[in-house]
Amino acid sequence: MIRSLVISGLLAVTAQAFEESKPVEVTPASVDASIKRGLDFLVGFQNPNGSWGNPTLTKDLNIYAPIPGAHHAYKAGATGLAISGMLDNNDPRPEVQASLAKAAAWLASELPKLRRAEQTTTYNVWGHAYGLRAITRYWKQETDPAKKAEWVRLAQEQVELVNRYEDVNGGWGYLDIYDGLATQKPSGLPTSFTTATVLLALEEARRVMGVKLDDKLVAHSVAMLGRQRTPDFSYVYSDKHVMAPRAPINRPAGSLSRSQACNAALRVFGEKLITDEVLDQWAERFLDRQGFLDMTRERPVPHEGPFQIAGYFYYYGIYYFTESAKMLPKDKQAAYAKRLAALILMRQQKDGSWWDYPLYSYHQPYGTGYALMALAWCKDAMK
Question: Could you tell me if 87 and 141 are in contact, meaning their C-beta atoms sit under 8 angstroms apart?
């Protein structure tokens, strides 16, 4: 009997894997239908106060999260991504607009309170970065000059807050537990992808809303990101990894997601080495080799995959692929968009969400936000 149960279980898992791997036809109608399902999921999953995600669905192995600040950061990041995914798709349905109005109120109320949980963690930088992304999108769709000015004020406040948490060596990280020091500015471990995430959010906010950036601080962080780049345009995981550039996580397969974000960040801040050829090469590499990322998607242990890949690399890479690819000539973008959309549509869950790593209950809103932003770009690029 036990043998029968085991075989039945294996067959069920195999059937599910086969179902997920079936090719999906990418058409305007199939993309629109997928986007609608994703939006419907977010509307239904939203908290009554307008945010997304909670410190629930715990498991045996939970990401280190000092309370309550770490969860405030997770919620801010997940909410910013959910909002951005919704706004990028311009759905006029009343239920979507009502959801966005509730989310706007939460964002305006809670983002100014966001700080690091304690000296050991700076998860809040993700909330500042994705909060800025959401604010920028609210500003773009707002028509009332007074309300637009308020969004700019809130954005400038977030810029100043994230500046506080720049590492003393430049860039941003999310943990500060390795040197045993308690410093006003973090002195922990700036990571390439966190730095790129913040830099891209800052650049967008300045370009769209005209917020003021600290040029010296930006240059300091851009220099740190450049230090973490290897000759093949892989990016080491963190500053500590600079001395081990051929460790598995720092090789091209381990850097598939990071290189999309880091190349884009350096490019927008003027790095001439990030040519179209580099972006094109890494776009091809991502699409050809994303199976390395997919092998770890939805697995619960960080860095348990090949090349020390973690599940949460997946949709991060999917979204930042678009940030990089949109810098290429328009005639190259359509083909990449169609290939990327096929992956996204194929990975959508039955409830309409996307997720890659079980993180309390934040994973579905953040994964869905990333996927919806990516699909919005795909839809536009394929026109």
Answer: yes
User: What predicted TM-score, i.e. pTM, was given to this entire model?
Assistant: 0.94
Distance separating alpha carbons of residues 260 and 240, to the nearest angstrom: 21
Compute, in degrees rounded to 10, the torsion defined by CA atoms 184, 185, 187, 192: 160
Distance CA 1, CA 94 (A): 53
DSSP annotation string for 81-144: HHHHHHHTTT---HHHHHHHHHHHHHHHHHGGG---SBTTB-THHHHHHHHHHHHHHHHHH---
* Residue 347 lies in domain: 33-381
Helices 314-325 and 363-381 pack at an angle, to 10 degrees, of 30
Give the tokens for residue 156: 């400038």
The total domain count for the chain is 1
Q: Is the pLDDT of residue 17 over 50?
A: no
d(CA 125, CA 130): 9
Q: Would you call 208 helix, strand, or coil by DSSP?
A: helix
- The residue among 131, 186, 125, 137 whose CA lies nearest residue 156 is 131
Residue 311 maps to which CATH number?
1.50.10.20
* Tokens linked to 103: 């989310």
> Cβ of 17: how many Cβ atoms within 10 Å?
9
CA distance 338 to 284: 13
pLDDT of residue 9: 42
Residue of 298, 339, 354, 311 whose CA lies nearest to 39: 354
What gap in Å lies between CA 38 and CA 53, rounded to an integer? 15
As a whole number, the mean pLDDT across the chain is: 93
The label of the residue with tokens 């949709």 reads 315
Instruction: Identify residue 322 by its one-letter amino acid code.
Output: T
